[in-house]
UniProtKB/TrEMBL annotation:
Taxonomic source organism: Epilithonimonas hungarica
This protein's record includes keyword tRNA processing: no
Needed cofactors: Zn(2+)
Catalytic activity: tRNA(Ala) + L-alanine + ATP = L-alanyl-tRNA(Ala) + AMP + diphosphate
Lineage: Bacteria, Pseudomonadati, Bacteroidota, Flavobacteriia, Flavobacteriales
Locations listed in the record: Cytoplasm
PANTHER family per the UniProt record, alphabetical: ALANINE--TRNA LIGASE, CYTOPLASMIC, ALANYL-TRNA SYNTHETASE
Protein purpose: Catalyzes the attachment of alanine to tRNA(Ala) in a two-step reaction: alanine is first activated by ATP to form Ala-AMP and then transferred to the acceptor end of tRNA(Ala). Also edits incorrectly charged Ser-tRNA(Ala) and Gly-tRNA(Ala) via its editing domain.
The protein's name: Alanine--tRNA ligase
Domain notes for this protein: Consists of three domains; the N-terminal catalytic domain, the editing domain and the C-terminal C-Ala domain. The editing domain removes incorrectly charged amino acids, while the C-Ala domain, along with tRNA(Ala), serves as a bridge to cooperatively bring together the editing and aminoacylation centers thus stimulating deacylation of misacylated tRNAs.
Transmembrane segment boundaries: none
Gene Ontology molecular-function annotations: alanine-tRNA ligase activity; aminoacyl-tRNA deacylase activity; ATP binding; tRNA binding; zinc ion binding
Length: 867
């Protein structure tokens, strides 16, 4: 049975049990402040469990893309070193929202595994929650009694809270669970050791394949449990492990989920995969085929590699794969991107985003590979210099600070530094490196640390967003909670009627005030969490139940919505000018400016930018009225021609914004007429990532301000140049400057010629070698020319020149070729540069260093005389 058939059979089975089959949600979460990625199948249904939203059906089944690389659920370091851990994996799941519970969940799980998939009953074990006195939770006898109908009691195992009480995080929906484990060992092995002893003991062939979670509690921030409004079923079956069991393999990597990718790696690398757990080559291949899946799905869902947040996680995964390929597969050129096509063939049918975004995914991965391989090559040079300096100083351990800088600042893999050092008989300070790494993590945690208390509910009432129609509203607080972070103590409030737009769709959240006759509070930000619009205020009202007046900052809202509306016009104009391959890949909409990322594979020309700008401004001048469809069936909106963005999660009914021929699904605030935008001006166009261009622009008040400042600069330039023809005057200045530069260069060369003779006579004999240490005020270019001439003409020589041109200290070292094997110019200059609080480098024959402390040149001079 192929993996595609296994997946389809699961969905068909639960469809026969009256479940609605829904597509996987994006792997990247954009509207959940508690998670970066979907780390389980239940993530997209969290609002249903908490009662914030009504589910589209009471029974649902799906296969969900999951990523476990951060936070509590982090499998990254295990990937490649065993047979069953992955960064990205599929979670097959069936869900009941207040419908069926334990009896049906257990019955159908057993039917599917034993009767449909045909797993021998004697190979299965189940666990139930044994209870927990501290939590005042009893043993799950209900599940036990249901399981007794299908499996012998000696195969029902009590499990502790760690294994059999499922929690999504520190707070949120949770409940007891029942795991199903399968024993895939041979009959001989089973005879030696019972599977009972190996369940939940990390045995590679006695593994959990399905977890049935009986969701009935909500974990509050203070750690206490409360009953959910209704009981739910949340199951998750590891697709890759299920394939291993059904295809009778000993490793997930031996199933057809991975074998096509492994075959491609073998073809591209010339290395043969043997499946040995401890073989570094095989570990590397497992890492590569696992990581390409995670990265490809993340990019397809809209998350590009970057230096922060979720983008940093994706970049880290990709770089880990590149590093393993570089070190153990001898791949010095990009090659991971060539695996994307294989992945599309395998999974494109079930996950169409891979087909749709295939070109983008391929180009982004290729570009990231090229960039990181350059980082590795540059790092190798830095490591070599570091090793030479360490040997020169007679030490055996590379300095921790610089090893960590290579890793942290330049992204050079620390294990690669370790390998190269060991080849030279050196080591790194493992303890010091770990301490530096932990300090960095603690700093990062401290910067983002936030303590969130439980909600205090004043009234159970549906909250209403009125911000599309008004920016001021009479309201009252329905719930509040305290928040503590590094900036102090604040309160999050939910309002009965909120005019404040919550951050989303690229648009920043509204700020403003919440006030009544006796108190006034600043609204610092507004976000959305679990369906609630939450505004952050700088204090707690004395009477939280009083009537308040909520006021949005009118100027900021006016400018933000102008910028948001213009992004829609910009999107359409880009598609008109560049082609329909253009798709929005990210945006920022604030009151000061807008940023728009889009798919396109080359830099835009000045002519294209002007044409786009003109098209947008033409739409503004047309005074096109907004057509807003607050709640329209998504298929109807798409049939009308509305743009839907990949990686966004849409409901059955959506909001559509239309300005003439521009139609997009959007939840943001907008102008009532394009004439309100005023004017649109592109400020810059640049690369955001491979295949992604970025436009930054302004409109409205900021656009008017831009042209006003431009006019002022032109007036000042005209006065300065004493001419109204500014272009002609500047051209004349450039000509004069070029002529003067030529004269200065000629003068420098004459001066340098005069110096060379004196410098040749100043060398001092040190045994059979010659040393010149000289101070000068010549510029760096002249010094370089002279040093290269001297190292050619003066044999067995070391030349050290200390210059203070323009008040900046600089040290230049030249070593004649016949001494370069024993005297390293780079090592010498690095040692001397400490005296001027600087650094630099070069090659064995020539090196330079700049610094900050010009007074240190005298110490450097004395030190150089001792060479």
């Amino acid at each position: 049975m192929t993996s595609q058939e296994i997946r389809q059979q699961f969905l068909d089975f639960f469809k026969s049990k009256e479940h609605l089959i829904v597509p996987s949600a994006p792997i990247v979460l954009k509207d959940d402040p508690t998670l970066m990625f979907s780390n389980s199948g239940m993530t997209q249904f969290k609002d249903y469990f908490l009662g914030y939203k009504e589910p589209k059906a009471s029974r649902i089944a799906d296969t969900q893309k999951c990523l476990r690389v951060s936070g509590k659920h982090n499998d990254l370091d295990d990937v490649g070193r065993d047979t069953y851990h992955h960064t990205m994996f599929e979670m097959l799941g069936n869900w009941s929202f207040g419908d069926y519970f334990k009896k049906e969940a257990i019955s159908w799980a057993w039917e599917l595994l034993t009767e449909v998939y045909g797993i021998p009953k004697e190979n299965l074990y189940v666990t139930i929650f044994e209870g927990d006195e501290k939590e005042n939770l009893e043993r799950d006898n209900e599940a036990y009694n249901y399981w007794k109908e299908y499996i012998s009691e000696d195969r029902i195992i009590n499990g502790n809270k760690k294994d059999n009480f499922w929690e999504m995080g520190a707070s949120g929906p949770c409940g007891p669970c029942s795991e199903i484990h399968v024993d895939l060992r041979s009959e001989e092995e089973k005879a030696k050791v019972s599977g009972l002893e190996l369940v939940n003991n990390d045995h590679p062939q006695v593994v959990e394949i399905w977890n049935l979670v009986f969701m009935q509690f909500n974990r509050k921030a203070d750690g206490t449990l409360e009953n959910l409004p209704a009981k739910h079923i949340d199951t998750g079956m590891g697709f890759e492990r299920l394939c291993m069991a059904l295809q009778q393999k000993e490793s997930n990597y031996d199933t057809d989920v991975f074998t096509p990718l492994i075959a491609k790696v073998e073809e591209l690398s010339g290395k043969k995969y043997t499946g040995i757990l401890t073989d570094e080559k095989d570990i590397a291949i497992r890492v590569v085929v696992d990581h390409i899946r995670a990265v490809s799905f993340a990019i397809a869902d809209g998350q590009l590699p970057s230096n922060g947040g979720a983008g940093y996680v994706i970049r880290r995964i990709l770089r880990r794969g590149i590093s393993y390929a570089y070190r153990f597969l001898d791949r010095k050129e990009p090659f991971l991107y060539q695996l994307v096509g294989v992945l599309q063939e395998q999974m494109g049918k079930f996950f169409p985003e891979l087909e749709k975004q295939g070109t983008l995914v391929t180009e982004v991965i290729k570009s990231e590979e090229e960039s990181f391989l350059r980082t590795i090559e540059t790092g190798l040079i830095r490591v070599e210099k570091l090793i030479q300096q360490t040997i020169y100083e007679g030490k055996k351990v590379l300095p921790t600070e610089e090893v960590f800088e290579l890793y942290d600042t330049y992204g050079f893999p620390d294990d690669l530094t370790r390998i190269i050092a060991e080849e030279k008989g050196l080591t790194i300070d493992e303890t010091g490196f770990e301490q530096a790494l932990n300090k960095q993590k603690q700093r990062s945690k401290a910067d983002s640390a936030q303590k969130v208390y439980d909600w205090v509910t004043l009234e159970e009432k549906p909250e209403n967003f009125v911000g599309y129609d008004k920016i001021e509203s009479e309201t009252y607080i329905t719930r509040y909670r305290k928040v503590e972070n590094k900036d102090g103590e604040f309160y999050q409030v939910v309002l009965s009627e909120s005019p404040f737009y919550p951050e989303g769709g690229g648009q920043i959240g509204d700020k403003g005030t919440l006030e009544n006759a006796t108190e006034s509070f600043e609204v610092l930000e507004t976000k959305k969490e679990n369906g609630l619009i939450i505004s952050l205020i700088n204090g707690l009202p004395k009477d939280a139940g009083a009537i308040f007046y909520a006021k949005v900052n009118a100027a900021d809202r006016k400018n933000s919505q102008a910028n948001h509306s213009v992004t829609h016009l910009l999107h359409e104009a880009l598609r008109d000018v560049l082609g329909t391959h253009v798709e929005q890949k990210g945006s920022y909409v604030g009151p000061d400016y807008l940023r728009f990322d889009f798919s396109h594979f080359s830099k835009m020309t000045d002519e294209e930018l002007k044409l786009v700008e003109d098209k947008v401004n033409a739409k503004i001048k047309e005074s096109i009225a907004l057509q807003e469809f607050r709640s329209i069936p998504i298929q109807e909106a798409l049939d009308r021609g509305a743009m839907a963005l990949f990686g966004e999660k849409y409901g059955d009914n959506v909001r559509m914004i239309q300005f003439g021929t521009s139609m997009e699904l959007c939840g943001g605030t907008h102008v009532k007429n394009t004439s309100e935008i005023g004017h649109f001006k592109i400020v810059s166009e640049s690369s955001a990532a491979a295949g992604i261009r970025r436009i930054e622009a302004i409109s409205g008040d900021k656009s008017a301000e831009y042209f006003k400042n431009l006019e002022k600069q032109i007036t000042e330039l005209s006065q300065l140049l004493k001419s109204k023809d500014i272009v002609k005057s500047i051209e004349k200045l450039i000509e004069e400057n070029t002529s003067l530069k030529s004269e200065v260069e000629a003068f420098k060369k004459e001066k340098a010629k005069g110096e060379i003779g004196d410098w040749k006579n100043a060398y001092k004999h040190k045994g059979d070698k010659q040393l010149l240490v000289k101070k000068t005020s010549l510029d760096a270019g002249s010094v370089k020319d002279i040093v290269f001439q001297l190292k050619r003409e003066i044999p067995t020589s070391v030349t050290v020149i200390l210059s203070d041109n323009d008040g900046k200290p600089m040290i230049t070292v030249g070593v004649s070729d016949d001494l370069a094997s024993s005297y390293q110019a780079g090592t010498i200059v690095k040692d001397l540069a400490r005296e001027i609080q600087g650094g630099g480098g070069g090659n064995p024959g020539f090196a330079t260093a700049g610094g900050k402390n010009i007074d240190g040149l005298e110490n450097a001079y004395q030190k150089a005389l001792e060479l």
